[in-house]
Specification:
- The protein has 450 residues and is α/β, with parallel strands linked by helices.
- Among the domains are: 71 residues, no CATH class; 230 residues, Alpha-Beta Barrel (TIM Barrel).
- Helices cover 35% and strands 17% of the residues.
- The chain is built from 15 helices and 16 strands.
- The strands form 3 sheets. The protein has a 9-stranded mixed β-sheet with strand order 12-11-10-9-8-7-13-14-15.
- Helix 4 runs parallel beside helix 5, helix 9 packs parallel to helix 10 and helix 10 packs parallel to helix 15.
Length: 450
Amino acid sequence: MAEKIGRYCVVSDNIYEDNSGVRVQLVYATRTAKLLFVIPQVADALRAGRLDVISPGTRAALRDAQVVVPDGQDELTEILDRNRSAARDRSLVQFILLPTSYCNMGCSYCGQEHVRGGLTADHRDRVRARVLRAIRLPTTEGVRVDWFGSEPMMGYAIIRDLARDFVRVADEEGVAYASEIVTNGYLLNHRNLDALIRECRVSRFYITLDGPPEIHDVHRPLKSGNGSFWKIVRTVRAALDNADYRDVVFEFRTNVDVHNQDSLPRYIDLMAELGFARPNVFFSLARVRPWGNDVSAIELAGKDYAERELDWLRLINEHGLPYMRMPTLAKRITCPAVKATSELISGTGKIFSCTDHPLVPQTELTAALGHISQDDLPIFRPAGEFDGWYDEVEQGKSWCRDCVFLPTCGGSCPKAWHEGNPPCPSYKYNVQGRLDLAAERIGLRPVPAG
């Protein structure tokens, strides 16, 4: 069968060598998110489109990574059809639940409006019934329940109450159950952390730290006026010493803007000194972006951020802290907003497809797809604004159609595209530096030019 070199790969600019003098280059295959090592002659052939000079063995490896594809294949259509199929798949169901509309922090870059009060008993029962009905569907093979906010731990009792039934029924039905929580971490302690892990089966905690303590406590102030950094860090650090939690992932996320960017080296040094270089800890950075609000005064430009990010990633790399050099999985589902069997139920009882919509004053009023109190709700949420996202990509309504990173990015955020604010990931702009870090991790160093 005739073959060609596909369009979805990135070849490192640098040549690398090890201590024995062996020289290689890196190829990142975005359709499969695989990183391959090839000799420089193969790298040159890939750039030149010369499949005929690549040996059969190497060609087989490239074929497996979908760098080499059938000659007549329309790769864009293949990717979008794969993603459409995943978006329509009813075997995997996801619920993102906000057990409260209140948050104990007052972060300046947050676009949400927080009000006290959780779901009423009636609403809670309706949420329970809706999730359990989806679990019991004969088509359901797996369910994921994520706890989101505002601050979900303000509704901790609701989480335990609901999760108890979700876990029990999933087990009875033979349905795989998974759960994650996005939390500021301040209300976590040994007791409730243990209950979330053992009873509620939360296996990943996303916790935001925006710098060293003196910066974080100003960037993410508690409404009480107290600091939160050390309480969060001590709780998670103690949990890492519990062997029963070795499969639970704690991801520290840092939202970066003009106010905290210069403090990141100190933060990274501190987290390393405190012993967070553990296999079940993960570090991620993200520039502050609009969330229904105007952050133009503090937002970093995408390319400028990507350039600075490389310095921070190098420091993370030097300390041995786990982070994402390049995506390791192709993204079949861009986000929950594009999947028919994913929905978010707000603390107000409204149902949304997009996680940016609840508790933001304008979209809370205009973007809801239904309400949990409706007796005529369909089994899966009504159609949302972004259900046709992959058709929009195909039609060229974003530049994702022509981007080499489409298979790993998926367009990042359809909502941002609709708002005219392209959300391209930083690795689009600093991929070569990230490939250098991937090479460095296994003891390879760039060959000096000339």
